[in-house]
Specification:
2 copies of one chain form a homodimer. Chain A has 406 residues and is an alpha+beta fold. Helix content of chain A is 17%, strand content 28%. In chain A, strands 6, 7, 8, 13, 14, 16, 17 and 22 form an 8-stranded mixed beta sheet that branches. In chain A, β20 and β21 form a beta hairpin. The longest helix of chain A is centred in the N-terminal third of the chain and has 16 residues. The radius of gyration of chain A is 21 Å and the shape is globular. Chain A starts with 20 loop residues before the first strand and ends with a helix. At the A-B interface, β7, β10, α6, α7 and α10 of A face β7, β10, α6, α7 and α10 of B.
């Protein structure tokens, strides 16, 4: 057990083994890079040596992300030492007294599709008469670029998107009637690669800074009409919610596990010797009712393979790039990471604790994603925090919109 | 004819009616926001009033982009006045003596698919037995997000991408054998919109700062294997080349023309009263041989409709967002904006001036995109400059790559 002078509630997943990074704004409007210890926040710049302070005294994690793994290690060691040294003990600011901001500038946002259960479920729903997995699926981690500019921090309202949907032979514009959630885990990149020089999967920890939860909100009716042949666009681009705490990969080192067996064996450029599966327990709640509990460890393609694939054509990554797993679903009914799977495209609604049923999300619904790495050998768990969003009605047609303007 | 003390070669498309913005690094390593006049560059900060200088004294156009249309107008007026005032006359730095950098930080990069000729040609090639246009194509501007981090300025080497391709029943990793170009026009966004509040197409000029040329390099073999169901990814993400000069929309005001008739009439959210077609003459050369000449004015979906669509679900845009037209092809054989169309997927190679033939691009080939708005009523043309790229062989397998490492 690591020593720590800060109070830790029993079973807290925010002990000195976690020390996630976030950006907090306090009651005086000061914005600072912080870590979370128990139910309080500690200003990182107060805990590290002067030469490291410039990396953590701005309003984002961007300089720290760019600094690379040696510096990440030093900052983390100094945080641990600071918390272990009794003479540093002092009252900390409760996390409830600060606002948590999007902690880094998102470079490119890539969303993968790496759960074999999710891809199989969607294949069955959309192409019932064909093989559910397309020929490329087991050969490479299928993915696409999402909208980086609409990645927002937990708590950001989810304005119901409006768009064109097919109704029989008609195409009409209306607020989405099939608003869905997607349970995902995201990875935040630090230093990138040189153009033309792919990242080896076994070097993933030289590049990946940490882990967040991601809710890749999806309007299934918009998506269904638009997505061929170039993929998802407005059905997803309105908002993507991330948790406020970036849990360093270093905090999860004991939770790296061998991934599932891959058959056929992937191309050598995607093969790793080190275990890059990540043992996380994930859950989804709608208005407090848990509708899904699943685990991340059996994701078919690991984050190390995703990063290797992303750069395998010579493309570069930059500090602040975010890549997400794709919807995480397990093999059983209670482990499905989206409503489209849970309700079989709306046909079998889920029932919430208050007795109401949901085929898709309603205005006012609050979706909470949560995750933790289990406590091992008596150690406390590592909590990833939550990604929360509440659905807000689509705004009425703006007075400047064409229908009203003319 | 606007007065101008700077020397202008006969027929120059960089007269005082153009005044595009770029970022130049000079022989002393100084990086400055410049405009181009004839064959020389003028430092913008030297030509505007002190209160505007902070917008143009950094290493990018980012502050100017964010400042919005009233400021854009003032800066442009002051540049015109500065060049008209004989007492400002002085020698300017030849454009050949500076390096031109990527002039702005790309936020999100969206690529549309808005040429009906291109979409029809590709539909025929890929789905010969079906309607070439999918049901959504005439209803909305189909598009997807590309990789912002690999948008690079003209002259950046085009490293041939390597990736997984299908060969019969086998899947092999190799350098792309079907490297292609795409002739596109891109639009650079300034101030964005509020979440949930779409941009009206008739307000496009409050948001769009200017225009660049875009070559959306494409590896067709990588793309063919990967692109279903989530769209293009590694087949495009290795590099996108843009021209170094952002031509302000204000310079093209006389070149806005009515777009083609749209049938069926688009949704009201996509309808505009103002003419947002853009009268540009485009061309593509490979190693100096012009292989395509086409015009931009008959693009089916205008840039104003593209921007309206992009925000129609409530998504926001940011300064530095770039959206491109998609490959611009005209109706005839000499007007095709990609090799996949020009050669019918490689079946009918094009012949260059030196007698060699190309189904796809070879290492060492140089592709040059050019564009200008024609001179009207005796005025000189407006030159958009060029987007140039030379293909470089795929690097040999890196010593750190798995095959070599083990």
């Amino acid at each position: 057990m690591t020593a720590c002078w800060a109070p830790l509630p029993p079973g807290s997943g925010f002990g000195p083994g976690n020390l996630p990074y976030g950006v907090a704004v306090d009651a005086d409007g000061r914005t600072q890079v912080v870590t979370r210890v128990g139910d309080a926040v500690l200003t990182v710049a107060d805990a590290v040596e002067p030469s490291l302070r410039s990396l953590v005294d701005g309003p984002t994690l961007d300089p720290l992300l760019a600094a690379g793994p040696d510096t990440w290690r030093r900052v983390r060691e100094q945080l641990v030492d600071h918390l272990a040294e009794p003479r540093h003990e002092r009252p900390l600011t409760p996390v409830a007294d600060v606002g948590l901001l999007l902690p880094f500038t998102v470079g490119d946002y890539v969303d993968f599709y790496s759960s074999i259960h999710h891809a199989t479920n969607l294949g069955r729903l959309f192409r019932p008469d064909a093989e559910p997995l397309l020929p490329n699926w087991r050969r490479l981690p299928v993915g696409y670029h999402g909208r980086a500019g609409t990645v927002a921090v937990s708590g950001t309202p989810v304005v119901r998107p409006t768009g064109l949907v097919a109704e029989g032979d008609e195409v009409v514009r209306r607020p989405s009637g099939q608003l869905d959630l997607e349970l995902e885990v995201g990875f935040v990149v630090g230093p990138g690669n040189e153009p033309g020089h792919p990242i080896d999967p076994d070097e993933a920890d030289d590049h990946v800074f940490g882990v967040v939860l991601v809710n890749d909100w999806s309007a299934r009716d918009l998506q269904a009409f638009e997505y061929q042949p170039l993929g998802p666009f407005l059905g997803k681009s309105f908002l993507t919610t991330v948790s406020p705490w970036v849990v360093p990969l270093a905090a999860l080192a004991d939770h790296l596990v061998p991934p599932p067996r891959q058959e056929p064996a992937p191309d050598p450029s995607l093969r790793a010797e080190r275990p890059w599966g990540l043992d996380l327990e994930l859950e989804v709640a709608i208005n407090g009712t848990i509708v899904t509990r699943t685990c991340f460890a059996d994701l078919y393609w690991t984050f190390a393979q995703q990063l290797a694939h992303l750069t395998s054509n010579g493309a570069t990554t930059r500090p602040g790039d975010l890549f997400a797993s794709g919807t995480v679903s397990g093999p059983t009914e209670g482990e499905l990471g989206s409503l489209i799977e849970l309700t079989q495209r709306g046909a079998h609604p889920v029932t919430l604790a208050d007795g109401t049923r949901r085929s898709w999300l309603l205005d006012g619904d609050t979706v909470t994603l949560g995750a933790r790495a289990p406590g091992l050998r008596g150690a406390p768990p590592i909590d990833l925090g939550q990604a929360v969003g509440t659905i807000v009605a689509a705004p009425p047609r703006s007075p400047r919109a064409p229908g009203a303007r003319r």
